[in-house]
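User: My collaborator sent over this chain with a note saying "see what the structure looks like." That's all I know about it. Can you take a look?
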Amino acid sequence: MNGGESKEVTLTFALDSDASGEKTFLIETKAGDKIDSKPVAVTIEEGTSWTSSLSGIFGGNKTLLWVIGGINLILIILIIVLAVRILKR
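Assistant: Without extra context I'll predict from the sequence alone. Here is the result:
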């Protein structure tokens, strides 16, 4: 860029699932030999999706959620099989 020009920059952050609150970091710019640092504060709101709520309930253990889902699937199949057998009588 030439002197006096400006450009919009988009920064994308990869956040941990439990990230929340205000986070501060430095942005450094370089113009020739001059380096300038500016602190930037970003407020991260706690996730409100149903998956983040469930993982919060189970301490963030996604394996436990998969096990519970698998047990539910087995129970549904078992109920269907029993219902079909009862209807055939």
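A starting point for your reply to your collaborator: The first strand starts at residue 21 and ends at 31.
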